[in-house]
Specification:
Blueprint (H helix, E strand, L loop, with lengths): L1 H18 L6 H13 L9 H31 L13 H4 L1 H19 L13 H8 L3 H28 L8 H27 L5
Helix pairs in contact: 1-3, 1-7, 1-8, 5-7, 7-8
């Protein structure tokens, strides 16, 4: 669970850096989209590098989902009888990890249909990622879906990063505050980075 989560976190960092290229205009962003398909050239054939990344991500997502299900079943099995007095001791992010994971999984499907296959993007132009991003965030539903999903991602990272550190032995009483600060900062920066793109389109900064 921790290792697959950190792999996905690394991808999100790279992904948000690529997304922010939209602020440099269509030439820069579309060139970045073309580069994704020529990664590894001339060693790798066209799109081989991109497909390798996709396969790693698919493996990480599958492992993360399976582990989440197994941990959930163990959690339920360990306490089949509910507590008499319910007291919320966990953080909001902790309590919403499961639902957040479901929201993110559904969003990934939408995101692929929207900006990869262009199936649900009515104004999409194949080979023009910049224009497709603007088309997506020019619709109220595109913005609503994306913003809700990014908030779920932020909460997921906030708890998941700290939990992964504990699982992998990096946590301790002395480092606990620093790890929580790092988790909060990372979640905030990634959420802000992802949200900046639809906000820029909505406000006309990117058009």
């Amino acid at each position: 669970m921790a290792v697959s989560g950190l792999i996905l976190l690394g991808y999100l960092v790279a992904h948000v850096m690529g997304n922010l290229k939209v602020f440099f205009g269509p030439g820069e962003f579309n060139a970045y989209g073309r580069w994704l398909r020529t990664m590894g050239d001339p060693v790798l054939h066209h799109e081989w590098g991109l497909w390798l990344v996709r396969l790693v991500l698919l493996a990480a997502v599958t492992a993360h989902g399976v582990c989440a299900y197994q941990l959930s079943r163990r959690d339920i099995g360990a306490r089949p009888v509910a507590y008499v007095h319910k007291r919320r001791r966990a953080s909001y992010a902790t309590r919403t990890m499961r639902w957040g994971g479901v929201i993110i999984a559904l969003f990934v499907v939408w995101h692929l249909l929207d900006l990869t296959t262009l199936t649900v993007n009515p104004n999409a132009q194949p080979g023009h990622p910049y224009e497709n991003v603007v088309a997506t965030f020019s619709t109220w539903y595109g913005n609503a879906i994306y913003l809700v999903a990014m908030l779920a991602v932020g909460l997921h990272i906030r708890h998941g990063f700290w939990a992964a550190a504990q699982t992998l032995g990096a946590g301790s009483a002395r480092r606990d505050r620093a790890l929580k600060t790092a988790a909060n900062t990372l979640a905030l920066l990634l959420t802000a980075g992802f949200v900046a793109v639809p906000v820029a389109v909505m406000t006309g900064v990117v058009s």
